[in-house]
TrEMBL record:
The keyword Protein transport does not apply. This is 3-isopropylmalate dehydratase large subunit. The gene is leuC. GO terms for molecular function: 3-isopropylmalate dehydratase activity; 4 iron, 4 sulfur cluster binding; metal ion binding. Catalyzes the isomerization between 2-isopropylmalate and 3-isopropylmalate, via the formation of 2-isopropylmaleate. Signal peptide: none annotated. It comes from Asticcacaulis taihuensis. Coiled coil: none annotated. Heterodimer of LeuC and LeuD.
Amino acid sequence: MAQSTRPKSLFEKVWDAHVVEPEGANSPAVLYIDLHLVHEVTSPQAFSELEARGLKVRRPDRTFATLDHSIPTLRPDAQGNRPYVTKQAEIQVHTLEQNAAKNGVRLFGYDAENRGVVHVIGPEMGLTQPGYTVVCGDSHTSTHGAFGCIAFGIGTSEVGHVLATQCLAQRKPKTMRITIDGKLQPGVTGKDVALTVIATLGFSGGTGYALEYAGPVIEALDMEGRMTVCNLSIEAGARCGMIAPDQKTVDWLRGRQYVPQGEAYDAAAAEWLKLKSDDGATFDKEIRIDGSAIEPMATWGTSPDQGAPIVKGVPVAANEDEERALKYMHFTGGEKREVEKVDVVFIGSCTNGRMADLRAAAEIFKGRKVAEGVRALVVPGSEWVRVEAEKEGLDKIFTEAGAEWRLPGCSMCIAMNGDFVLPGQLAVSTSNRNFEGRQGPGSRTVLASPATAAASAIAGHVADPRQFMALEEA
Ligand SMILES: CC(C)[C@H](C(=O)O)[C@@H](O)C(=O)O
Ligand code: SF4
């Protein structure tokens, strides 16, 4: 087939390479799925449906499962019993264990060295590779877009479709390029970029779009920072977010378990590096953000787009929605962040539970103490992260500062496993959702970067991390 010479965006290149059946006036396109990730919460019904219809998993070799949402982050007791928070949590875990075994799907189970939060382990093992289509019954699948993948969350019935066919019916989204110019100031991280992007777009500003993040700020971010940015795409309503693979991507993935090895890797990498938007590629929408003006961010409301630079304090409500959010958060509007007493700090999740995140937090915790009355919980995103962090002695830095160091899982990000914030308590959290009650009934969540979370744990109030950093003069 003759190749079109029309300039294409990164999204179009990956999309076009996966179309099995083109989109019609009345029918969505059928897309081939390269990688299907599965966790215990959204898979049970999909497997039951498959069984009811007498179907098999079409590509068990492209389907990988993990346990993350419902598993306790505390160690088993002396008898080996796991401290599940409810019977239902335990059933979810056992159901996935059985479904995976029955269908020949690889499960990174409780004791597996590769277990972890689904969006942490995919990239970590090199299951996620540039140019792939990646789906999972989980909205933060957008994380994998940091590797130049079209990666998005699907519903449970779609999980069933992909299990049965390795394909998915999809309408092509519109495209939006978000270019972040300039250079980040010292102490400003990928999370601050992400919270700024969402605050700019609004919680539904990305609805119907596939985002591409580009520009010097994105190029300068490490892979962890890029994953954080892509992770939060869904919080602006976008279908997915992606970043063109570059030499950093190639270097980061090299040698990982599931990527090609040796010369085959170099050959794959040469193809990956072609995955970028052509000069002259057009987008349905383009926005630009001045990266040099981004500051450490913290949310003040009950939606991830309700965030502002910490130095600016809590804004005054501009409408009823904001008024309601401020009320829930026990803020009046207009106050300084220093007056927000913090009860809990959570560092972890698929947004910020990777090595780079834990190192950033440890730099602030080192030689300092968590303020009295603050509970700080550090939860690695995966077993691999846990082991690496322990090798570097980060766990010691956390525990000596007075923080808890746990086993990997989603933990307090979604509070399904027994780790939760008490009613009325204020948590500074490195996760991605600050909805009412997200971290436990009545919990109040402030989203921020690992550095800001650590700084807030030390200060006892929402704090700009730069006061604890030895920053070089720019
Ligand atoms: C449980 C799961 C379906 C959910 C999601 O889709 O994102 C969870 O991971 C979350 O972060 O809210
Ligand atoms: S860490 Fe949080 S956001 Fe990520 S998959 Fe788990 S529950 Fe969802």
